[in-house]
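[agent] plan:
  1. take the single chain provided in the ticket
  2. run structure prediction with default settings
  3. attach structure tokens to the ticket
  4. add a short note for the reviewer (M.T.)
[agent] executing step 1
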Amino acid sequence: MENQILELEKRYWKAMETRDFDTVKKLTRFPCIVAGKDGVRSVDEASFKKMFDSGAGSQMKVLNISDAESDIIDERTATLAYLIELEYEVKDQKSSGKCACTSTWVKENGNWICAMHTESELRK
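[agent] step 2 finished; step 3 output follows
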């Protein structure tokens, strides 16, 4: 099951990369909790869609996911932590970064969905 959770996380990032909102929506529990450089917030589906759409015109590419650690708490709850390297392009300006991420996945109605995600930028 641990590999399944990591594969779901990779699928989520691929959907973010390809701007596939339907897949992202199917893999997200609403409201979800997100934490990162902009703070902590609970996000409903409409707010999430607005955030997703605000990234139109920019490109993101996942370069690498490594050092994954997961914990299957029970048959309905799993946590995952990993490092991710990303490349961004906004208005022809490229940048890259590395983050430590965590996600909490829960199983509802037979499907795994992400209930919480955090990103912490790593020092270069």
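[agent] step 4 note for reviewer: The CA atoms of residues 106 and 112 lie 5 Å apart.
[agent] ticket updated
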